[in-house]
Fold this protein.
Amino acid sequence: MAVSQIKMPQLGESVTEGTVDKWLKHEGDFVKRDEPLVEVVTDKVNAEIPSPFEGKLVKIAVSEGETVRVGAVIAQIETGAAAAGAATQPKPKEAGVAQTEAPPGPAGGNAPAPAAAPPAEVADGGDRQRLSPAVRKLAAEHGIDPSSLRGSGMAGRVTRDDVLAAVGGQQAAAKAQAPPAPAHPAAPAATAPARADGAREELVKLSVMRKSIAEHMVRSLATSPHAWTLQEIDMTSLVRYRETEKDNFKARHGVALTYLPFVAQILCEALKQFSWLNSTWTDEGVILKRYVNLGIAVSIPDGLIVPVVKDADKLGFTDLVRVINDLVERARNKQLKPEDVQGGTFTLNNTGATGSIASQPIINQPQAAILTTESIVKRAVVIDEAIAMRHMMNMCLSFDHRIIDGMTAGQFLAVMKKRLEEWTPGSIRL
């Protein structure tokens, strides 16, 4: 008998921690290899993590809602023939069997008493306890020292409820020490906020993914100076081609033909020409990427996920369509794997799907830029001293001003504009 540890995976290049959103198995369950075990959420992905082992789940070390560092043990699985037998019958009591780590005793009336929960882990520096970002922020907002609290979470971990309880205690103490109110209190100020009565206002608890996205967006703006520019593009030729070919394309390949793959292929070619937009800032210098791992932003009910098309610059058009459709489908069904969201070098977002005509996207760190395609709108434009009805689209670029200047950004969008406006069926790299 041996016990194997399940650790928090790294679900993104810059991700350092993840939150357990939901356990799909319970302690004592038999788990097959590659069977979904737990849902983990970060600012980049909401994914089902498959079990790398087959055996009995003997310990869940991290509760739902807890945030832990990448590499931290979140569960233990008893592997080997003995564990396999547990799927059909109770496991007999054994003694003196070597194991990598002592698991909890088997369920039943004769099970040995579990060991006392270990104290919360302590680290050097200001972060004396391993706290989730939300708990750490809440404590800081109310001036609470987390190390002074007795944690009610697993392994003595301080939770949000512990901090709120401490805040309530402070408020009660302050109220008790306050002088009695005057007999005729003054009328409340007109600017005092209205009290939520449950009818006119509602507090909606933030999901783990929404909190993670919020932290990532704030961190991105704090990390790099964002600049923004826009280019107007005549998409008429491409619109006419797609309208003519979309039914035949779906009949041949089984997937819908959208505008996104056309833009993605031209984008990959432009990034090879303007490698500064396909780069990462470091204190030692700028790392230019000679390959394109294209992130595709996908909207889901809880927020936004950015799966990555690996080596997108090497894919033919039809393969690019298939890969993008596969990633989008799996993202919306929570079937992405950790490797599906890692290694992105540039992000493309189709905000036009919402009806937007202009947007200022936030860079997906540690990348240097992000591009959005907006709604294609039919309107009158001037061409060669005449007015014509054309299908027009705005394309917006946010970029890290430490790496890229306005001239380079403008030249990049000018190339994108030229290639999209002059697009012909012969432009497709199959």
User: Anything to note?
Assistant: The domain at 2-85 is CATH 2.40.50.100 (OB fold (Dihydrolipoamide Acetyltransferase, E2P)).
